[in-house]
Structure formats: C-alpha cells, structure tokens
Amino acid sequence: MSAPHQYHQPNAPDDGDSDLELDLEELDPLASSSNSNTPPGTRRSKDHRKPYHELGTGIPLRNLRVGRLRGNRRMRGSQDTEEEDLRALIEDDDRANRSSGGSYGRSGDDDVPLLPSQYARRRPQPPPSTLSRIGTTLRLPSFRPTAVRLEDDHGELEAQEEHDPSSQRTVAVGQAQTAQFPANAVSNAKYTPWSFLPRTLYNEFSFFINMYFLLVALSQIIKPLRIGYLSTYIAPLAFVISITLGKEALDDIARRRRDAEANSEGYTVLRFEENSVGNGVSPGKSAHRKKKPKRGKLGARRLSDIEREEQSLSTTSGLPTASYWETVKPSKNLKVGDVVRLSKDQRVPADMVILKSYSNENNPAEVESKISGSSSTLVPEDKPSEAEDFPAVKPNASSASSGEAFIRTDQLDGETDWKLRLTSPLTQSLNVGEFTRLRVVAGKPDKKVNEFYGTIELLPKAKQEYDPHIDRNGEEPSVSAGTTEETKSAPLNIDNTVWANTVIASSGSVLAVVVYTGPQTRQALSTSASRSKTGLLEYEINNLTKFLCVFTLSLSFILVALARFREIDGRPWYVSMMRFLILFSTIVPVGLRVNLDLGKSVYAWFIEHDKEIPGTVVRTSTIPEDLGRIEYLLSDKTGTLTQNEMEMKKIHVGTVSYANEAMDEVSSYVRQSFTTPSGEAPLLVTPSSTYATPLASATRTRREIGSRVRDVVLALALCHNVTPTTEEENGQSVTTYQASSPDEIAIVRWTEHVGLRLLQRDRESMTLQSCDSGNNVVRVRILNVFPFTSEGKRMGIVVRFYQGPESSATDDNGEIWFYQKGADTVMTSIVASNDWLDEETANMAREGLRTLVVGRKKMSAQVYAEFSAKHAQASLALHNRDNAVADVVNEYLEHDLELLGVTGVEDKLQKDVKPSLELLRNAGIKIWMLTGDKVETARCVAVSSKLVARGQYVHTIAKMKRKELAHDSLDFLRGKLDACLLIDGESLALMLTHYREQFISIAVQLPAVVACRCSPTQKADVAKLIREYTKKRVCCIGDGGNDVSMIQAADVGVGIVGKEGRQASLAADFSIEQFCYLVKLLVWHGRNSYKRSAKLSQFVIHRGLIISICQTVYSIASKFEPNALYKDWLLVGYSTVYTMAPVFSLVLDRDVDESVANRYPELYAELKTGRSLSYKSFFIWVLVSIYQGSMIQGLSQLLVGVGSDGSLSFKHMVSVSFTVLILNELVMVAMEVTTWHWIMVASIVGTAGIYAGSVPFLGGTYYDLSFLGTMGFWWKGAVVAAISLVPPYAGKILGRTLRPPSYRKVRGV
C-alpha cells in the first residue's frame, strides 16, 4: 500500500473528508518528493519537459482543489502562459525549498505555508513505500527560474546605472540599489597610478631650473652642439628627477597605506533574505542550504476549514518579511542601503539614518550569540518571529521605546557638546525583519552638516492572492501583490542622522542605514582636495635661477660679440653662442635640487628622531623650510588648544563663593541637608523642606548660607539633560553619564562629589541619592524639558516633587518648580533684580571659566495647568510654532526667577598651551582661532589660554545680517587695531561676501582673531584668503576631521593625533601629539631648516658660478673659442665627489643652541624678512664667485700659461687651477661653518684625501703628473689660493664686526 502523501490536506467544506479515502499517492505521485535526496542544485531542463498535452495527468490534487499557481509565475514572460500555468501546478521548486506540505519557501514563491503551524493537526504517518522512494529519487526537479533574492550569496547585486548626484535618491533598506553610488573609501592620496608620472613631471618641469637643464641635455643630441660625453648632461638631470619622484612616490605610498588602514576597519552589517512562512530559513542560511526537515516534526498537516487556508495564503503576519544575519564588512565595502550595527565609541563610517537603538541592558552579549547561533538551526515554526528579532528587546524597555542615542561630532564640526539623535517612531517599533520594506528618500549630497530633510516610507506587507486570476471580490488583481495596507511615511531631519566621522557616545547599539558614501558624505564634501605643496624657498631659488640664466645668456652673447660674430672652426656665430650656453650651464646648478631634496630628508630625520617631541611624523618632506617662515597660525580649539574635559571650578551663591578646598564646606552643607536625623523614617526632600543644622552652628547666617547651598546644589542636580548609565569595566560596575553637553556632565559630577548623586533618569522621572547614607532623597516627575539651543542659550525643566516616605512616596499635590540655567547674557533679564550677578560673572569670565546662571520659580497647580494647556496649543501651531511656544514660556515661566547662584566650569587646556602661545606670539606669529563651537565657549578659551591678553578689548561681531552693520564694524576696527576680533560664522560669511578685501586687510593686522561657528569650508576659505592677500606663509593646526580642509589649504598643515581619530594627522604635512610640540617644530626645527637650506643653496650656486667664471676667463684667453676648460670627469667630479660632501655637510650647521632659540623667540621673527636668502645676499655671493673665479683662472694662466687644448702647458695650467678650485671650495665651507660637527670635519678632510688619491688616475688625460711633484706647482698654487681666499675672509670678519648678526649678539661672540 502506498504511503499517504505528506502535505497539508485541506478538508473541503462540501464533502467533508471524502477525499481522504483516496490513494493520495496515486492522485499526486509527485508529492512525496519532499523527502527526496536529490541535490538541490539539480534542475530539469526545459528540453526534457513533458509535452503540453501530458501535463494535466500530473497535477497534484491539492493544487487542483485550491486552484493556486506558483508565485514566481508572475516573473516569467507572457508567452506559453497556459503551458507554464499547468507546469506550475505540477512541478516542484528546489527540493530544499519545499516544506512538508509541498509549500515553497523562496522569495517570490509562496510567502506563507499552506498551513500555519498553530492550526496543524498531527496524524501518525506510515513510512513511504519502496516504490514511492524509488520514484521520488528518480524524479528530477524542475528547471523553473528561482525567485529573485535581495542579495546573492557573494554580496549585493550590482546596479547597472550610476546615480545622478544632483537628484534626490530613494534608498531601499537592506537591499541592492537600482543605481550605482560611489564606494565608501577614504583617500588622502595625491596621485593615482596613472596620474603620478604626468603630474609629478609637470610639477618638476614647471621649475625653470629643470626645464633649462632638460633643454641643455636635449641639445647634446645635435652634433655641432655636443661637448664631451652626452651622459655628462643627461645623468645629473635624471638623477635629480629620480630623487624627487622617489620622494613623492614614497610619501604617497605612505598615505595610501594609512588610508588602507582606515578603509579596512570592520563594521557589523545585517544581511537580509526574503522570508516565506514555513520555509524554516533562519538567519544566515539561504533556502538552498536549508537542512532537510525531520519527519514527524514537519510531517503532514491538515486543516479543518479551507477558509483558514485561504486566510493563511493572503497574509504573512506570522513571520517577518525577511530573515537576516550578521556579517562583518570593511568600511570601504559598505554600500548605500546597508544596515550597519554601531556600538559605543565606534566611528561612523558613512552618512547614515538611524533606524533603531538599543540600550546596554537590552543588548547583552547573549543577544549576539543568539543572532549568530540561530543561523545554524531551524527557526521553530511555532515561534517564527522570536529568532528574527534583533536583539531580544524587552517589551517595556525604555530605550526601545525612546529610540535615543548620543553622538560626538567634534571631528565633524568642532563642537564639544554631545548631540542627541532620535530614531523615527516608524522604525523604532518595527521588527528588524521588516526593514526591507523601508525606503529612505533623501536629498542630493550636501555639505551642510547641520541640515537634512528626508522621508522614510514603510511599504505595505506583500500578500499573495488565493487565485492568480480572480481575487476574493471577483476582480482581476493588479500586477503587484494585493494589499490592504497603505504606505506609511514619516519625516526625517538632522535629529535622525549620524554623519561620517562622528562617534557613537551612548551605551548600547544603533542600527542605521547607509544613505551617502565616500565622496558624497558631508565630511568629504566639506574637505578640499589635497594639493602638491611647494616651499617658499623653492620659489625664491627658482627666481634666482632665472637671473642666472639671463646672466649665462648675456655672457655667451658678450663673448660672441667680442669675437665680432665671426665663424670659429667653421661654425656660425649662433652655434658658437649655443656652445657657450652649454659650457656655462653649470652657472645654473642642476645639483642644487638634489642637495636641497637630500637636505629636506635630513631635516625630516631630525624632526622624527627628536626625543622631546615623540611621535612626530613628517608626512610631506618637501616643505620643512617653511616651518621657519610662518607668519600666521590658524588653530582649531577643541582637542587642539583644549582637552575637551570639563571641570567645575567655582560656585557663587550670592554672598559667598566656593572654589578648590572650600568645596569641602559645600559637601558638609549638603550632608546636613539630605541626611535624615537618627531614629526618624527617611523622607523625600523638597525645596520647601526645612533646612536642619547642628546646634553648634545654628547661627542665622550659616542657616541662610546652608539653605542657599542646598537649593543651588538641588537645582544643579535636577536642571540638566544627563542620563546615568551603568557599564561593566574589568568586572566592576561603573556609572557613566551621557549628555549633549560636557558642561552638564561636569556639573552633575560635581553634585555627586559634594554628596548628591543622580541615580536614575528617564523621560518621565528622576531620582537623586545621598552619597553618604545611600538613601534616595529626592524624586521628581519631569513635566516639561526645554533643551539648550544656540539661539536661546539656556535650558529649563519643570518638575513635580514626590513627598512622604521613600517607600510610599506620591506626587499628588506635590510642589511644582521651574528650574533654569543659562548664559549670563540671557539670564540677566530673566532673574529677579540683584546687585552681584554682573560683577561675579565678569570675574569668572576673566579667569577663563564658562559661566552658567541658575534660577528657579515655584508654580501653583492652577498656573501650571494654564501654562500646560497653552503650551500644548502653541506646539500644534502650523505657522511660527517656535515663536508661539517661546511666547508662552516667557509669559508663564521666564520672568522674576529667584537667582540661586553662578557656576564656573573650566575647559582644561592642553599641556603648556599658555606659554606656547605666548612664545609664538613673541616670535612674530599672528594667531587666529577658528572653531565650530559657540561664541561664549570660544571667548572663554581665548581668555584662559592667554590668546587674548589681560585687559585687551574684544570686539564681538555676531549674527550680523545687514551689510550696513558690517561696514560700521570695519570702520571701528580700522581705528582700533590693538583689539581682538571675535566673529561668528554667519557674520564672517557676510564679510567675505560683501567686504572681502576690506575685511582681510584689517583682520591680518589685528594681534588675534577668534572665529566661531565656522564650517570646515569657511576655515579653509580663511586660510586661502590670508595666503592670497598677504603672500605670507600660513600654518594651520587641528585634530579633527572638520580641520582637514583647513590643513590642506594651508602652506603648512599640522595635525594633532586626537582622542577621536587620526584623520587630521593623516591629511597633514606634519603630525604631532600635543600642541606644545608645535613650538619646537617651528622655533627650532623650522628655523634650522630654513637657515641651513638658505646657506646650502647659496653655496651650491657659488660652486657652479665660480667654475663658469673660470671657463669664461679661459675662453677670453683662447680667442673666444667655445672649448671646454674642464672636460668630462673633471666637470662631473667637481660637482660630485670633490665638493658635494663638504657642501652638503652644511645641513648640520646651527648658529645657536636650542635653549637660546627658545629664550629669544625674536630670532625666529627676523626670518620672515627672508634675509638669509635675499637678492642682497645672492649678489654678494655672485660677486665673491666672480672675484674668486677670475683670480683662480687668471693667475693660473698668468703664472703657468694657457697653451693650446691638449698641450703640456694646458695640462699644467689645468692642474693648478683645478687643484686651487677644489681647495678654495673646501676652505670656503670651513669659513661658513658656525658650529662644528664631527661629520663636517670628516667630510672636508675625507674629500681632500679623495682628491689627493684620485690625482694619479687623472694623469695623462688631464694632468701632467711630473709637474705635480715640482716646487713650481706648489708655490704657484699657494699664491693663487691665498689671493682668492684672503680678501673674502677679511670682508666677512669686517662685516661681522661692524654689523654683527642677531645670533652673535645673543651668543655674546
């Protein structure tokens, strides 16, 4: 007897169970394939299908009764529709997709089982017959196309079309997108493999000196112009270019490695796969990999009523739309639409919209194991949704309902306050398995970090109809699945977003969908492209070489003119002139770039190996000399000048002020106020509670002070937006605080320090605990919260106090109080009149403290009821809602507050910031502070860091909207150039738009400028504007991602390795670990680098010029014939082995010690005049070169004779002049050294030895060795050397005596 078929057999309502008596296997021979062992990948091709007329014999009875077609029929074309319909009735999908009842579990197939498990009635099943098993095994599965999945096994499906960045985008959450978006990769590299050579070669040959030598080298291809070996001219240029290109390549490779490190950071991403009820697909397992269900657990199911089956076919409410599992992706592989799980202290890798947030207690480790573990087990059919939910959130969990998260944005906008971010209620309450129904509609990529408008839509849940041709109403269905729901939508704004390079600050986890990636993120759009930087010294030398070229051209023309333009050796005059140009090419020294580039590498080595500034990295080794020429320093505030760590330093309660050790007295008052007398039941404290004092100190004054202290501490403990969280650290429970402002956290920590701890806080209530007794002493119900805004500059809260014993406390008829704290500028008009507030806030501001004024007001129940009704009404206004709410608050709350006290909070400065800024100011550097923080905060830090001198007037320009006001402010500043300017971003934008030239011309003259509320783009614009207007060197220093644009726009960018990341340091030219390291970087290393390079470049020019003068004198003596004096090896050896080491050793010279450089920062100030390498110093060296070259060659020719080329007398003359030339250079190097180094001595002595050792090898071709051993050679050489060296040295001594340089004055020598 054949075994009955194992599937859900519906009981037809018309004839009861009559069909059950039939041999089901005979009617449906295909159904037993559910237990087949056929591999899931095996398919039957269309070529082997049964003929159309035979299809009707194999239709399963179940399909005939229900009249159902497979869902994926809709995905095929319209041709052969009837045949395909019949095939769909009889053919199976992949065996692994078929449930026990023959229902299918793939996306696009049946979305629900034929029978839900809760309605299933189990019946004992006999084993299948042998014939059935054989038939099942032999039967091949169909070759029907499988349903479309959200993601393939190897990742997302690639979109074919690239998205237009100028249009809005619709993001399908958790799915592949219909358009392509840019990759989410960070790149600080300057070059690509294809652009490296073209760009670097263009940069190199844009320098006149390189182009000049390229033309000289190419001229040697022309035979009449060829002089000596071709390699003599080609090799030096190739060597110079190779060195420079190699340095650029190494720098860029290092940048790419750092980028790769950031791009490879792993993030947890949710992968989705569309579900079908009953398919048993668990997260992480596709339908292809589904385990074979065990018989008995997934056996045949029956239903008593066919309507139930129809109902189950038309809804998927029992199971989420999709299954999902976790996978880890590197940051660069994140794509638009990916759902990413972010945890505390994790950097946000792209611009995202928050979908769901979980608190720490709702996101334990076991939840993760549940997620990952579920992928290897079947989802229980009776509880399909539990395994899908992520994580197992308690129904009443506060975080699940609130959907809050805090982020740190100081890497983006420079603001230290934590920002509160909220999830949309539409997504917070949504099962994660339904996320694939979400669509995020967002605008085009924008650089505005504080603005976002979008919409999130929840599509209806897809339902499959009972019949593909006729729905229940007898109408033909539409193309899409039938639905009864409507699309739900909710607005999105900045509060629902987290931008790239912000950091999750709150505990727990956040699920967010990627909306913008890579170059389209806010951070990237606010960042300017990196550029190749060239030092000021290079431009100056480039100008000098142009003069040398003109000098060479003039000299060549003069020699040809003196020869009366006649033909020489059959060559026309212009060919002779070209040959002279080539002979004199050493005047423009090709080795200068090599020496300078190698010198830069030495300076970089010194900087990176300085033990006093550990961790310093030179990322751009082409501009170390510019460190010695800085005139404007643009600094970020947060994390650069300050540590972003707040500490409560002072509190004033009207009659007495407490600070430092006096805080212990505050603690004693708090202890007395919140401690219940022994023997009495503990009662909750309210503001009206009697202040109890010990008898010993029961004076009226102390009682009043104690009462005021209690009131102000209670107000500070209640008036905030701080939430306490408990975390596990090293096995211990640690309480941390989360808030949007570090000031509030500092104040709450202070209240805990003095004895009143914030124990619990949610949206509805707050509990305070006594630190001494451990009892809960204050409980309040939060009625209203008015958060801090940059416009309002204050924060308020309305609370109702619980009263009575702690165990049975009630807030019925409880006292209602309004507490408020804010900036003194706004609170002065809100609190009641007093005579001490202005004076005390001014005192605290002078100390650099951030002041907050605290006040309170008691409200009756009736007044509060009126306020609440009007407030609710104003909150619903469609127009001017903010103003309407503000009017109500002002009418009922914000007037005549009782002034409780003033607090002073200090933002801790970085180590040694005050002396560092003072030293830099004395070094002649004008310092600007550019920050994204608030005006008050910027002012406080400017005062506390001594950026603004004591008593200096600070002119504030804020919220300027009219051009007329801007003009007035500029007129005022023009007459007061000793003031400090404090300007906000809005006013700065107005100035730069309408009065760009006037503003910058005045601002650059001011001793200090503080610009706050600056966007990253504005910071970069200011840096560019100063550079373009003043033509001076600008240095920018910062630590955050919001500083990258400014750093890259500067001549010298310095990045600090901050707590929140290394993006600024990676993009900078120099990376340091503390702000105070900047002093040594500029005053010591920068000064040395510039002075050494200036001396080195002038000496290299001298070295090339003197040999050309020798050539000129010889050409005049040889009747203006363009023949070489020093040929081949002598010419190459002169600029390499015979002089290079001594000349290059000048990079080790220093004029003063480090202690002297720090003691006299004025030594740095004089560098900005550029006297070390000026036209004056250059022409002095030119005159010295002309004198020495003329004496050396002229006296050699007079004492020895000229002779014809190659003759014995010519060799005698060359041996004398070349030997003296080498000796002259070695002695000149020794004359220029200020502080001797052993390497200098070794290089001079060693080079002299090398020359002496090479002389025997120069015999025959260049020298006459017999002449070198005669007395004539030695005395003639000595006379020539003495005449060439003594006068320049005497002039140097005389100049030092009459006008000693500054370094000799401070050294006392």
Automatic annotation (TrEMBL):
Enzyme category, top tier: translocase
Region of interest called Disordered, as start-end residue ranges on this chain: 1-137, 278-317, 363-403, 467-487
Residue intervals of the P-type ATPase C-terminal domain: 1066-1300
Statement: the UniProt record of this protein carries the keyword Transport: yes
Catalytic activity: a 1,2-diacyl-sn-glycero-3-phosphoethanolamine(out) + ATP + H2O = a 1,2-diacyl-sn-glycero-3-phosphoethanolamine(in) + ADP + phosphate + H(+); ATP + H2O + phospholipidSide 1 = ADP + phosphate + phospholipidSide 2
GO process terms (BP): endocytosis; phospholipid translocation; retrograde vesicle-mediated transport, Golgi to endoplasmic reticulum
Catalytic residues (UniProt): D636
Cofactor: Mg(2+)
Skewed-composition ranges (Basic residues): 65-76, 286-300
Protein's UniProt name: Phospholipid-transporting ATPase
UniProt organism field: Delitschia confertaspora ATCC 74209
